[in-house]
Design brief:
five-stranded mixed beta sheet; alpha/beta; 20% strand; three-stranded mixed beta sheet; 186 residues
Length: 186
């Protein structure tokens, strides 16, 4: 059986959030989870920053990082950035993924205080976990799902809040086919 590994790279995210995410991913995946906050710097993101939009161009960033950071077939990278991302045609994205490489999660629009709520660490972390699972799911070959599933597309933070932090039965089956042994038995 393959030995899976997920490397979490963070930019501007408090270490306690990344440690929490690392622990949650260990509960869900049979994978070694390691973190690194030094591989990517804010300065290295300048080339994909749109001053006009004050956002990072997600698809260009994904191309840049996937060229810079290689992975083996059973490895994935999860980049968590304290920033806002977009792709052409959309005002923003919560994240973006590349099959067989990994994904990027942008946390700016996951923050409760952005929507006039009081800052809630619990709510922020729930959103962070859901979007991380969503992008990792894409990286392992899962498409968007229409069921009550973490793979459901989120057009707004309310969509993120309304979906579970779990894969539905069909997505679990598909994930077990695409990545046998990745999911921990429940």
């Amino acid at each position: 059986m393959a030995e899976y590994a997920i490397k979490i790279l963070s930019v501007g995210i408090p270490v306690e959030h990344i440690e929490w995410l690392e622990n949650m991913l260990r509960l869900i995946f049979n994978a070694s989870i390691v973190t690194d906050s030094k591989t990517i710097t804010l300065g290295s993101l300048i080339g994909v920053y749109s001053e006009e939009r004050e956002q990072l161009q997600a698809d260009k960033l994904l191309d840049y990082l996937s060229e810079k950071i290689g992975v083996l077939p059973h490895q994935r990278v999860l980049v968590v950035i304290d920033g806002d991302g977009f792709v052409e045609g959309l005002n923003f994205v919560f994240g973006i993924a590349k099959p067989n490489w990994g994904g990027i999660v942008f946390t700016e629009r996951l923050k409760p205080d952005l929507y006039g709520s009081t800052n809630s660490v619990q709510l922020f972390r729930a959103r962070l976990l859901k979007e991380s699972l969503h992008e990792l799911g894409h990286s392992f070959g899962l498409p968007h799902c229409s069921r009550n599933c973490v793979m459901r597309f989120s057009n707004s933070v309310y969509d993120v809040d309304s979906k579970p932090a779990t894969f539905c039965a069909q997505c679990q089956i598909r994930l077990n086919i695409e990545a046998p042994g990745l999911l921990r038995a429940r």
